[in-house]
Amino acid sequence: MDLTNDLLPTIPLFRSLDTDSLARIADAVKPVSLKQGEALFRKGDDGNEMYIIEEGAVKIVLPSSVGEEIILTVLREQSFFGTMSMFDGQSRSADAVALTPCRLLVLQRDDFIHILQQDEQALRTILCDLSSMIRKTDDLLEGLCFFNISTRLAKRLLDLAEQAAGGTDKPVAIDLTFTQKELGEMVGATRESVNRELKKLREEGIIDMNRGTITISDWEALEELAVPMDF
């Protein structure tokens, strides 16, 4: 794959850059491969690089002291992550673990900062991205505290569908590269509870499940479920 012309222009952070800047980034990045289940970094590690997903899926995980974990998000091709620690110089705030075999591109902090110093639009984009990450984390924590499992699962399925759509029309199906246990970790519930909720959604005709995919059959009904009830 031609990084300058094919991959890098699809990354939101780099869309405003000209060909010369993209070529410099292509020269600076280094490839890294991960096996399924392999950790790229752990919470508390030093953060001197950002990462671009060329192929595969990575889960960003918040571990807990009791051995459980909360999956903050699942990132796929054309996503980038790891920028927060590069800005504040602090350690990693979560784990990054490969959900599938992955190919990533690594960009070192010095090269990254040099790019931002030369491109104001790229700086604006990354600041918006960091703000979005913080908002999503706030929404997740709010949901875990105040929403029931039906609402949390509906919201997560809609989020996964939006990611799968990639800004295009609504996808036919969500490709489940994760287990029901991992889906439970995304909504703060057990695998058994998620399984019951999925079965109920399927019986009500809101979703259809087949061979590792979930198809949203009734978007309006799922969107209604994602809105918490007022009491």
UniProtKB/TrEMBL annotation:
Domain HTH crp-type: 147-220
Coiled-coil annotated spans: none
Source organism superkingdom: Bacteria
InterPro entries: cNMP-bd_dom (IPR000595), cNMP-bd_dom_sf (IPR018490), Env_Response_Regulators (IPR050397), HTH_CRP (IPR012318), RmlC-like_jellyroll (IPR014710), WH-like_DNA-bd_sf (IPR036388), WH_DNA-bd_sf (IPR036390)
Nucleotide-binding in keyword set: no
Keywords, alphabetical: DNA-binding, Transcription, Transcription regulation
SUPFAM superfamilies referenced in this protein's UniProt entry, alphabetically: cAMP-binding domain-like, Winged helix' DNA-binding domain
Every Cyclic nucleotide-binding domain range: 13-133
Name of the protein described by the UniProt record: Transcriptional regulator
Species per Swiss-Prot/TrEMBL record: Desulfoluna limicola
